[in-house]
Design a protein that fits this description.
The chain is α/β, with parallel strands linked by helices. It contains three helices and nine strands. The chain folds into two domains: 67 residues, Roll (2,3-Dihydroxybiphenyl 1,2-Dioxygenase, domain 1), CATH 3.10.180; 75 residues, Roll (2,3-Dihydroxybiphenyl 1,2-Dioxygenase, domain 1), CATH 3.10.180. A four-stranded mixed beta sheet has the order 4-7-6-5, covered by helices on one side. The chain is globular and about 45 Å long. The two termini are 28 Å apart.
Length: 144
């Protein structure tokens, strides 16, 4: 058996209510109602779940420390449809409390991107590239 796709990304967060408000602001939608202690954001193709960091660490293993220092080597990304969309997104995430880590700029691979970090220090890249296209549901794909 193979795993054909990723369906959920879960972020361990320090303050669930604050993180939920942050993501409500940048996604423009609220979490799925009816759940306490966890926030499910149903997005096209992949859900984003927010769960208290200490509880997530304990769920994985009682010996796992919830300490998150430094860069983990993982980034999350959103591919935009234009450079202008990226600039608008950066204004929105900054207003929502994100830290701008790298202002949007032209890239070595022919695109345009920048990075911000959310309230818990997770790094997000917002990128546009001429090699990408979008399905009708907004999913990223290579042009046919």
């Amino acid at each position: 058996m193979t795993v054909p796709r990723m369906t959920v990304i879960t972020l361990g967060v320090m303050d669930l209510a604050q993180a939920t408000r942050f993501y409500e602001n940048i996604f423009g939608v609220g979490p799925h109602p009816g759940y306490e202690g966890i926030s499910f954001f149903e997005l096209p193709g992949t859900w984003l779940t927010l769960y208290p960091l200490e509880q997530l660490a304990a769920d994985i293993s009682p010996e796992l420390s919830p300490d998150r220092r430094g860069f983990s080597g993982i980034t999350l990304a959103y591919n935009a449809r234009s450079k202008d969309e990226i600039l608008a997104i950066f204004e929105e995430v900054k207003a929502a409390g994100a830290a701008i880590v790298k202002t949007p700029q032209d890239t070595f691979w022919g695109g345009f991107s920048g990075y911000f970090s959310d309230l818990d220090g997770y790094y997000w890249e917002v990128a546009w590239g001429p090699m990408f296209d979008f399905a009708p549901d907004g999913s990223l794909r290579f042009p046919k």
